[in-house]
Design goal:
The complex is a heterodimer of chains A (370) and B (183). Chain A has 370 residues and is mostly helical. Chain A contains 14 helices and two strands, in the order ααααββαααααααααα. The N and C termini of chain A lie far apart (59 Å). With 183 residues, chain B is an alpha+beta fold. Chain B contains six helices and five strands, in the order ααβαββαββαα. Chain B is elongated, with a radius of gyration of 28 Å. The chains are: A mainly alpha (370), B alpha+beta (183).
Chain lengths: 370, 183
Amino acid sequence: MEILEASLPYLMPVVYAVAMISVFMGLCSYSVLAERKVSSWIQGRVGPNRTRVPLIGHIPILGNLMTGLGLFQPVADGLKFLFKEEIVPGHVNKAYYYLAPIVALAPALTTMVVLPFGRYVDADGITQPLVLANVDVGMLIILGISSLGVYGIVLAGWASNSKYPFLGGVRASAQMISYELAMGLAILPVFLWSAAPGSEYGMNLFGVVQSQQSAWLIIWQPLSALIFLVALFAETNRLPFDMAESETDLVGGFHTEYGCFKFGLFFVAEYAHVIMGSSIFVLLFLGGWNFLPWLADPWGAGLFGTLLSVGWFMAKVFFMIFFFIWMRWTLPRFRYDQVMSLGWKILLPLAVGNLVFNTILIALYDTFTR
Amino acid sequence: MAKTKVLERKPLSFAEKTFLPQIVSGLKTTFGTMLSKGVTLQYPEERPVIPDNYRGVPTLVRDPNGREKCVSCQLCEFVCPPKAIRIIPGEIDADAEPDRAHVEKAPKEFDINMLRCIYCGLCQEVCPEEAIFLQDIFSLSGYSREEMINDKEKLYELGGTLPDKHFKWDKKKAAEQAGNAHH
C-alpha cells in the first residue's frame, strides 16, 4: 500500500495520458464516421446504417436509432483494417515503408500533451487549465511537432518507390513549407495581444484562452483567424488542399501502395490532425471553453463546472470538425500551382502585413494609454 | 450560320476576387442539401415504383378462371430474336378437362432461357392469346446456368393471373353450341 502511494505521483500522469489517448483515438474513429455520414447527407445519400452490434444493437428503440446513425460502424471499419491481408509490394523500401505510418500518426498524438481542454478552480480559488503538461511554450511545441507529420507523408511517398506516391510526397512537403510560414505569422498578432509584457502566460495556450474572456479573438483579429484557418486546411491536407492525396490525378497519392492497417494508420493520422487543428483553432480564436463573447462563464467552481467547461470546449471542437467536413464536400480541389501561388503570393504577404499592422497598433495603443 | 454574340465579362469586384462570398454561398448550398431529404432507396426493403408498361422478366399468365392461356402456337418461339424461348407443344387431355377440350393444344414444355432473353417484348407483342407478358420483375439471379432457365411451372408462378377482356375460347364454344361457329 505504501509503495502504491509512493508511486502515485509517477503513476497518475501515465493514467491520465492513457485516458487522453483513448478518448482521442475514440474521437478519431468517430470523426471518420462523421465524415461518412455528413458527406452522404450532403450528397443526398443515407450513409452507413446497417452495422449492428449484438445486445446493444437490439435494445428496442435506442438500438435501431444507433444503428441508423451508424454508431457501430467504426468498430466494423477497425476490424476490417485489422483482418485484411497484409500486402507489401515487392518494390518498396521495407524499413521506411513500415516506419512511415507511425511517423505520420505519432506527431498528432504527441501535440495533445500541451492541449488544454477545460479549466478547474483549485483549492486556492485560482483557475487552472486541464492539460497534461502546462508548459509556457505550448503553442511552439504544437507548431514544431505537428509539422513533423509531413515527414510521414514524404517518407511514405519515397519508400513506396513508385511515381504517384512520390509526387504526392513532394507536393505535401512543398505545401507544408509554404503554409507553415503563413500559419506562424498569422498567430503572432494573437500572442502579441494576449501575452502583453508583464503577463505571466507567454506562449501558453491557457493564457490565450484566459485573455478571450470578454471578446473572442476571431472578432477583433478576423484576418489572422482567416489566414490561420486557410493554412490549417493546408496543413491538415484536407480538401481543398489535399494535394498529397488528390485521387483524380495521383491515384491515392502518398498512400497508393498502402493497404490494410498501415493505410488505417494514415487515415487515423489525418483525422487526428483534423481534431488537433480544430482544437487549436477553438483555443486561439473561438474562446476555448469561454461561454459566449462578452458573457461571463456560467460554469461553477465545482466538479460540475469543470465538466461543463470541458463539454463546451468539446462542442466547439465538434463544430470545427463538422466545418472541416462541410468545407471538404463544398469546394473542389485547387490546382497545384494555384495552391502555391495562394500560399506565397497572397497568404504570406497578407500575414506579414497583418503582423506589421498589429505591431503598429499595439505601439500606438501603448503610447496613448500609458 | 448561327449568329454568335460575344458577352462582355464584367471585371470581378474585390469581394469576388477573394472568393469568400462564393465559398459562403457554396457552404449554404451544401448545408441546404444536407437538411433536405435524401434520394436513396434502401433497396432490398424499399422497392422502386415500376411503371405499368415496364418490360421486365417475361412470364406466362392464366385467365381469371385459372386456366392456362397459351395454346403453344410457337409464334413467340419463332419471333424471339435471341432464340431464348423453346416450346414443346402438347395436347389437352379431353377427359381431364372437358370444358377446355376444344382449345386442343397447350404447351407440354415452355422454357425461357433468361441468359439469352433481351427483354425486347416481341413475344408479348406477337402472342395472339395474350398469354405471355413482360411484367414488373427486374432483378433475377441464380447460382447456375440451369437455374436461369425458367420452365413452365416457374413462368406460371411468376406470371400469376391477369384480367381477361375477351374470354375468346368461351365465346367460341358458346357460338359453336349456338350453331354459328365460323371457321
